[in-house]
Amino acid sequence: MPLLEGTGVTKYFGGLAAVSKVDFHVDEGEALGLIGPNGAGKTTLFNLISAALPLKSGQIRFKGTNITGLKPHKICRMGVARTFQSVKIFGHMPVLANVVLGSYFGTSNRMSSVEAAREAAALVEFVGLSAVQKVPAKDLTLANQKRLEVARALATKPELLLLDELMAGLTHTEVGQAMDLVGRIRGKGITIVMIEHVMKAIMNVCDRIIVLHHGAKIAEGTPQEIATSKKVIEVYLGE
């Protein structure tokens, strides 16, 4: 049974189908890439999975349970966390406090402030931000703000992590560091779905790739199969 599965997932904005009858699955432990031109529906699909947007039709299941129509915080507490295309952090709060919030949000169990701070500190170290844990989040570089957002998502204790353009805007060196971070997250047993335009990352990190175009799935396969698909090259890779 797939960890996450969608059937006929559809979302309209007015008369425009942002996501159209998309079927997908994510197996436990894999890294799935989601690519396509701007406006293809990638982030909208993330918004539908995380319940930031309601479906028009279709169904999404997590661990066999239908999560369609649930509130975002309930889906998060079931084990689905995400980052955002445009970084969403609490800018005036220190790095550590941002991650502590994730620890509180991701569990329905009572957690002491000491325990939350300890968990948050471990995650801040995991993503490489220990040296700046007392710095206001707004003062971090873009790369470190993205790392902070990953740490906050990890603090909710996800089984599935949705990464929305983690590497956008990063330097070549920072992309390499981000790829290493994704590998270490997988090492924790966390399943990953990642939207990415940095093809080096997609091709090297992901086991399987889904390609969206105008809201529809046009291809699915291994990185090698996608890289050699004439249809994909025409609509995306060849641009």
Word description of this protein:
The chain is α/β, with parallel strands linked by helices and about 240 residues long. It has two domains: about 1-70 and about 160-239, P-loop containing nucleotide triphosphate hydrolases (Rossmann fold), CATH 3.40.50.300; about 90-155, no CATH class. It has helices spanning about 40-50, 70-80, 95-105, 115-125, 140-155, 170-185, 200-205, 225, 230-235; strands at about 5-15, 15-25, 30-35, 55-60, 65, 80, 160-165, 190-195, 210-215, 215-220. The protein has a six-stranded mixed sheet with strand order 6-7-8-3-9-10, with helices on both faces. Strands 2-1-4-5 form a four-stranded antiparallel sheet, with helices on one face. A hairpin with a 2-residue loop joins strand 4 and strand 5. Helix 3 (about 95-105) crosses helix 4 (about 115-125) and helix 4 packs across helix 5. The longest helix is centred in the C-terminal third of the chain and has 16 residues, at about 170-185. The chain is globular, with a radius of gyration of 18 Å. The model has no long low-confidence stretch (mean pLDDT about 95).
